[in-house]
Write a sequence for this structure.
C-alpha cells in the first residue's frame, strides 16, 4: 500500500486521482489544493467541474480511499508518491511573455515538497511542462543533500481530453512514464507502472527517458491541433470554391494513413492546452536556435486565430456589414461540448469581436455560463446570459452555433425561426445542424467550409 498525494485539484488532478483511487483501493489517495473553495466543492455534492461520469467515480471512492484536503504540508510529509498537477499557464510577463510556460506554481510546489519531506519520495510531473523541467525539479529537490531525503522525479504527462476525461482515464490509448535509467530511477518508474497496471494493460504503458516523456506530450498536442488548423485552412478555400468541407474531410479521412478523427472543421480550437502548449513548443524551438521549426508550429496557432476572426467577418458581411444594435444569440460558451470549461473558448473570442461591432449579445450554454461570465470580465456587463436557448433566440436577428452541444442540434428550429427578426440568419460554427432543412424553414444559413444557403444574393 502506498500513500499517494496530488498537488492541484483541477481539471486534471481531480479526475485523474479519482480514477486511480477507484481502481486501486489498496492505495490511499489524497488531493490538495491551495484554493480552499475548490477543495470544499470537491467534498460537496456539486463538484467544481462538469465532466460526464465523474460524479459516479467520486461517489465510489471519496471517503473510502480518496480524500480532498487543504493541509498540504502534513500530506506531503505523509506521502510516498507525489503527483504535481498544478497549472502551467502561458507567461504574461517578462522574458518569453506570451509564449513560455509560467512555472511559478510548479516551482512553489517543488519547494513545498522539499521543505516538508522527511522520507524518500517519488515526485511525478503530471502537469504539462517544457522539456528538461524534470531536471530543474531534481535540482531543487536535491538542493539540500545534507537532509538525507532522496527524491526520484518521473514524467507522467496526462492525455485526457475534457468532456471525455473519465473514459480517457479508464481506457487510455497509452500511459506514458518517463524516468531516469539509474537503479533508483528505474525502480521509481516500475512503482508508477504498477499503479496504472491495476487497470491498464501493460502493453499500453510506455516507458521512456525523462526528456522524451516531456516532449512527447507537447508534440502530441501540437499534432492534434495541427490537424484542426489544417482542415480549417481547407474550409476557407471550400467557402471560396463551392467545395464542401464535410465531403473533403471524409475523402481525406478514409485514407487509412490519415484516419478520420480530429478533422472536424470548426470556428477554431479552444481549451486550456493546445494554444498554451504549442506556444511553449515554439518558445523552446526559438530558445534552442531553431527559428524555422518555431515558425512552422506557430502557424498552427495563427491559423486558429484567423479562423475565429474569419467567422466573425462572415457574420458581419452576411448581415449587411452592420450588427450594431442587433440582438445575436450565441449558442455555446464552452470550448467544446460536454464541459463547462471556457478557457480559450472560440465562443468567447467571437463574443468579444461582436461586442466590438456593438452587437447586443445573449449567450446560452447548458453548463458554462458561470465560467463565461467570469472569463469575459468587464465585458460580461454588456452580455445577457440565458440558460434557455429558445428564450435566447427570441427577437434575435441571428444565431451563431459556437459549441457542438448535441442539444443544440435537437432544438425545434421551426419554433425558433417564428420568434426571430427577419431575415433570420444562422451561422453554424460547428457544422452540427441540418442546413438544408434550416434553409427550407426560411433561415439564411452559413456554415464552416460550405456554400452559403441564403434567400438572396
Ligand atoms: P487547473 O487550473 O484546473 O488546476 C490547477 C490547480 O492547481 C488549481 O486549482 C490551483 O489552485 C492549484 N495549485 C497551483 N499551485 C498550487 C500549489 N503550490 N499548491 C496547491 N495547489 C496549487 O489546471 P488543469 O487544467 O488541471 O491543468 C493542470 C496541468 O495539467 C497543466 O499543466 C495542464 O497543461 C495539464 N493538462 C491539462 C489538461 C486539461 O484538459 N485541462 C489535459 C492534460 C494536461
Ligand atoms: C486536448 C487533447 O485532446 C488532450 O489529449 C490533452 O490532454 C489536452 O488537450 P481538450 O483540449 O480537452 O484536449 O479537448 P479536445 O477534444 O482535444 O478539443 C480541443 C478543441 O479542438 C475544442 O475546442 C474542440 O471543439 C476542437 N476540435 C476538436 C475541433 O475543432 N475539431 C476537431 O476535429 C476536434
Amino acid at each position: 500500500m502506498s500513500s499517494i498525494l496530488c498537488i492541484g485539484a483541477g481539471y486534471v488532478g481531480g479526475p485523474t486521482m479519482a480514477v486511480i483511487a477507484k481502481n486501486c483501493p489498496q492505495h490511499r489517495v489524497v488531493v490538495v489544493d491551495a484554493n480552499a473553495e475548490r477543495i470544499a466543492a470537491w467534498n460537496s455534492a456539486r463538484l467544481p467541474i462538469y465532466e460526464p461520469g465523474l460524479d459516479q467515480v467520486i461517489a465510489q471512492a471519496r471517503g473510502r480511499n480518496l480524500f480532498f484536503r487543504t493541509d498540504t504540508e502534513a500530506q506531503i510529509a505523509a506521502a510516498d508518491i507525489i503527483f504535481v498537477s498544478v497549472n502551467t499557464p502561458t507567461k504574461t510577463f517578462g522574458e518569453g511573455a506570451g509564449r513560455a510556460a509560467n512555472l511559478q506554481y510548479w516551482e512553489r510546489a517543488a519547494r513545498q515538497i522539499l521543505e516538508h519531506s522527511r522520507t524518500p519520495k517519488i515526485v511525478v510531473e503530471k502537469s504539462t511542462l517544457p522539456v528538461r523541467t524534470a531536471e530543474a525539479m531534481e535540482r531543487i529537490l536535491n538542493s539540500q543533500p545534507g537532509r538525507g531525503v532522496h527524491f526520484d522525479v518521473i514524467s507522467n504527462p496526462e492525455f485526457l481530453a475534457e468532456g471525455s476525461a473519465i473514459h480517457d482515464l479508464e481506457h487510455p490509448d497509452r500511459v506514458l512514464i518517463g524516468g531516469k535509467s539509474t537503479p533508483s530511477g528505474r525502480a521509481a518508474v516500475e512503482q508508477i507502472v504498477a499503479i496504472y497496471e491495476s487497470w491498464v494493460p501493460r502493453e499500453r504503458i510506455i516507458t521512456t527517458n525523462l526528456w522524451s516523456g516531456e516532449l512527447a506530450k507537447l508534440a502530441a498536442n501540437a499534432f492534434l491541433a495541427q490537424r484542426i488548423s489544417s482542415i480549417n485552412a481547407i474550409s476557407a478555400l471550400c467557402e471560396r470554391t463551392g467545395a464542401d468541407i464535410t465531403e473533403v474531410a471524409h475523402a481525406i479521412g478514409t485514407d487509412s494513413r490519415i484516419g478520420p478523427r480530429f478533422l472536424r472543421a470548426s470556428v477554431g480550437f479552444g481549451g486550456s492546452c493546445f494554444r498554451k502548449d504549442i506556444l511553449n513548443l515554439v518558445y523552446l524551438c526559438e530558445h534552442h536556435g531553431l527559428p524555422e521549426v518555431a515558425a512552422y508550429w506557430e502557424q498552427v496557432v495563427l491559423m486558429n486565430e484567423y479562423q475565429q476572426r474569419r467567422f466573425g467577418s462572415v457574420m458581419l458581411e452576411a448581415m449587411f456589414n452592420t450588427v450594431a444594435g442587433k440582438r445575436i444569440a450565441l449558442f455555446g460558451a464552452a470550448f467544446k461540448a460536454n464541459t463547462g470549461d471556457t478557457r480559450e473558448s472560440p465562443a468567447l473570442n467571437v463574443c468579444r469581436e461582436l461586442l466590438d461591432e456593438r452587437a447586443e449579445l445573449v449567450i446560452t450554454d447548458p453548463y458554462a455560463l458561470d465560467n463565461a461570465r467570469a472569463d469575459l470580465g468587464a465585458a460580461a456587463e454588456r452580455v445577457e446570459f440565458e440558460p434557455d436557448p429558445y428564450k435566447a433566440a427570441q427577437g434575435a436577428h441571428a444565431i451563431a452555433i459556437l459549441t457542438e452541444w448535441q442539444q443544440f442540434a435537437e432544438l425545434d428550429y421551426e419554433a425558433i425561426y417564428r420568434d426571430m427578426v427577419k431575415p433570420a440568419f444562422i451561422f453554424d460554427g460547428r457544422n452540427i445542424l441540418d442546413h438544408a432543412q434550416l434553409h427550407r424553414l426560411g433561415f439564411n444559413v452559413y456554415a464552416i467550409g460550405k456554400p452559403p444557403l441564403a434567400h438572396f444574393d
About this structure: Residues 3-200 form a domain with the Rossmann fold fold (CATH 3.40.50.720). The CA atoms of residues 32 and 71 lie 7 Å apart.
